[in-house]
Amino acid sequence: MASEQSMSCLMSYMSRPRLITLGQSIDTAPDDLLPLIIHAVSNSESHGEGYGCLLNALNGYLQKDKFQQLSIINGHVEELLSIFLDTFKGEDSFMGPLRLKLNHSLADISALAAYPKYYPLRCSVTGTLISWLSSEKDDLKICGCIILGNVARDDEVCKSMLHDFKVHLPLISTLQREDSKATVLHCSLGFLKNLAIAGDNRECLGEAGVIKAVSRLWAIDTLPHAQLMAASLTRQTILTSVTNITRLLEPISSDSDSPASRRTYLSLLLALFSKTDSSPIKTEIGRTIAAICRTLMRLKENSELPPGTEELVTRLFDLHKDVARPIGIMITQTEWPIVQSEGWFALALIASHPAGSQAVIDCLESMCVIQSLCDTIHTPISRPEPGEPAKDKTDRLKKTKDRENALFLLHGLMRNNAASELPESLRDMFEDLLREAGHEPPK
């Protein structure tokens, strides 16, 4: 506990403009100055201008790595959270910017490697942050999401957060609320995506209703960033999960007389694809479709299929005639070569299924993929050379794999479509492409 004399000295020392404005002054400040500042802020009886000056000074010190580390090692984080909470007692127009700076400092502190060692999951600080996820105050929710999201660095921690602490429940509740603001949605979606990376958590998130919750966000055109993160969370949730893919393919309405009974949550995602101008959103939806196909259709190679898998594949293509269109975007974009290859593989998988081949033809004709198909098959591929640079090898292997998948796609389309079902112009083109590649077209 600092004496009144030391507090007086501190106030005099802190009031010098050079301390707050000159980084070198903060860098050379003694270590024991930090607890004095924290004590002064915590014990301030008012929340006016003087309090604001102290808090502004504290924020200045907490921007420095030295004092961030000391905050962890000396156990000051709980006090900093109390200060953060106290800022709500002042005028928000004045305290809001200061609170935002403190939030940034707390985010930086929690991202440091030392943080989990001093503040494990089972501690009072974590308990406070978890309680903030259910707060009516947006800034508390945001702070809780950011710090806990930084702590969620490995599978075991993420699993414990869901199974032991149930942190996903208030997060999903936030997504369901129509009055949730963009920043709160952004932080909640980001935290949930971190949690979904741990494989076992996907089933738990699906069971808690995350797919239905994010589907509401796909329709909010005024929040394109939330739409992107919601699409990304959807992809992360359905990865390798037949159960969650089933949830995505569930009808919007259980009323068989309603037109919505023929529309699924995937239908809503495809509707977002059709109306958005955002390439990242379109690509993310394409990757979601690709992940569905990899999970449902590659399972055919295994002897044991989850019950109802084939019915899911049929439902996928029967209810979503335009399901392959997002994959076309993956192929025609040139920014991410690995996504392009992912698209060729997925489109070849879809073409191998009789119902899916019709969706592929729709994609080729609607998404300007035919030219990409011709280019991929015609592109010359260099031979391996001794001492070949790694970049050249990667490029060569990509072109080879893409070409193989494009040819596999053509074989699937020719096998699964009778001469009368495939437009003559396409059939002639496909046969020519196969022959040029040294393949005999299927009869």
Describe the structure.
It contains 27 helices and no strands. The chain has 443 residues and is mainly α. It has four domains: 1-117; 120-208, Leucine-rich Repeat Variant (Alpha Horseshoe), CATH 1.25.10; 213-320, no CATH class; 346-443, no CATH class. α13 (168-176) packs parallel to α16. The longest helix is centred in the last third of the chain and has 27 residues, at 390-416.
Summarize the model shown:
This protein has 443 residues and is mainly alpha-helical. Helix content is 70%, strand content 0%.
Supply the helix-strand structural class: mainly alpha
| Helix amount | 55-70%
Ranges where pLDDT stays below 50 over 5 or more residues in a row are: 16-22
The biggest beta sheet, please? none
List the helices and strands and how they pair.
Layout: H1 4-14, H2 17-21, H3 23-27, H4 33-42, H5 49-62, H6 65-73, H7 77-86, H8 92-110, H9 115-118, H10 124-132, H11 138-151, H12 155-163, H13 168-176, H14 182-196, H15 199-207, H16 210-218, H17 224-238, H18 242-248, H19 265-275, H20 279-298, H21 309-318, H22 325-332, H23 337-351, H24 354-366, H25 370-378, H26 390-416, H27 424-436
Helix pairs in contact: 4-5, 5-8, 7-8, 8-11, 10-11, 11-14, 12-15, 13-14, 13-16, 14-17, 16-17, 16-19, 17-20, 20-22, 20-23, 22-23, 22-24, 23-24, 23-26, 24-26, 26-27
Keywords:
443 residues; mainly alpha; Leucine-rich Repeat Variant; 4 domains; 70% helix; 0% strand; guanyl-nucleotide exchange factor activity
